[in-house]
Amino acid sequence: MATQASSLIHPSRIVNRWAQLVAGVFAMMAIANLQYAWTIFVDPIRQHMHTTLVEVQWTITLFIALETWLVPFEGYLVDRIGPRFMLGIGAFFVGLGWIGAGWAESMHSLYIWYGVFGGIGAGMVYGGTIGNALKWFPDHRGLCVGFTAGAYGVGTAVTIIPITNMLKTGNYQHTFLVWGAIQGIVVLVAALFLAKPPDGWTPPGWKEKEALIKARVQTSARDLNPLQMLGQPSFYLIYVMLTMLAFGGIVVTVQLAPMAKSYHVDKIMVAFGMTALTLAIEIDRVLNGLTRPFWGWISDHIGRENAIFTSFILEAGAVFALLQLISHPIWFIVLSGLCFFAWGNIYSLFPSITADLFGRKWATTNYGVVYTAKGLATLFAAPGAAWLFEKTGSWTKVFWAMIACDLIAAFMALLWLKPLAARTVKASQSGSAEAVTSPTPIKARGVA
């Protein structure tokens, strides 16, 4: 019986890794709406429930908190039993999250269905697919993690128009019911193609590729488990930086529709029968997806820290320009898109640098711990930013907080993280990790 169960979870016939990458991309696209389509539901929910913006935004806060803070536990299970079983469970929760939100008639019910069920399901899918890409593609880590994470950003671009049209012709409850079922089914089908690499697996030509990668990217020679990772100073720096950088992008993600309404650009028709808000969301989601493989590929060649510095200097400039020109519909579309293009790469750069410094064996669990920083950032970006807007009647202070976080974190990457990461790598090669005890060495380079 145990053998049968094991073969079900770890099939002896492993699907091609590129097919798994494609399956992971489709799974991520299916859960994208849970976060990135949320902004267009905010106003209909607020009107239907007769509640405030702050109370509505606690829904997405709870969703992102559970999507991120449970990933370490979910990632541990993925590392132990593989991604297929976990994504199968995640598919059920993802579908039920939106279907239940369609039934909800109170904010508390919405918190449970959308926030709790949706958040748990999305976390399983996100952690499982990112971890699988980290393990199968040590030779193209930034690029392939970028493609996987990019699908989470771009997925809504494929569905935002039919979802918006359905909201216009029906109501948001019906939209939740229909798309909840669709999204759950897509994740379930994608899960059937996933499996973790066998022990000892390495990609073809790995020895030659490994030497080239180490010349470009700082890469540790040891696999650290989560407790050992927590003993590394570099972990805490990465965590603080991710919290700061996630803040700005999440503000634009969940507050874009309220911002557009505040600056009176939400209902202005601009092109293709779409309003400035709808077209902005469409373009934003495409750029949010494209930025992740693009900057992941860039970081494979110039290093993670250099990529973080460059992109977030650009991000600070884009946010500043948006603050000046947000009331102009065309600039609202262009600059919000640029914000996403410069921001979304954190979801390829930070998983990659986590695996670079702390190894592949526990990559899913380790990045799950790092990923909880997104949940922390959401507390400030969703109810926090909404509260500040309602108190001041303006988004100006929120924009300046975003700019400050981008600039500080960018220079932290270049001046602090880069030398600290070099010391982490040097310590792993000399066998004296920074502050950990007996890290587990990699057996035969590249073991997952």
What is the structural class? Answer: mainly alpha
Number of helices: 18
How would you spell out the order of helices and strands?
HHHHHHHHHHEHHEEHHHHHHE
Shape: globular
**CATH class value:** Mainly Alpha
CATH A-level architecture: Up-down Bundle
Beta content = under 5%
What are the salient characteristics of this protein?
mainly alpha, Growth Hormone, Chain: A, two-stranded antiparallel ribbon, two-stranded antiparallel sheet, 18 helices, 4 strands, disordered N terminus, disordered C terminus
Notes on the protein architecture:
There is one protein chain. A two-stranded antiparallel ribbon has the order 1-4. Strands 2-3 form a two-stranded antiparallel ribbon. Helix 13 runs antiparallel to helix 14 (304-325) and helix 16 runs antiparallel to helix 17 (363-392). Strand 2 (269-271) and strand 3 (274-275) form a beta hairpin. The protein is mainly α. It contains 18 helices and 4 strands. The chain is globular. The chain has one domain (15-198, 211-217, 227-428): MFS general substrate transporter like domains (Growth Hormone, Chain: A), CATH 1.20.1250.20.
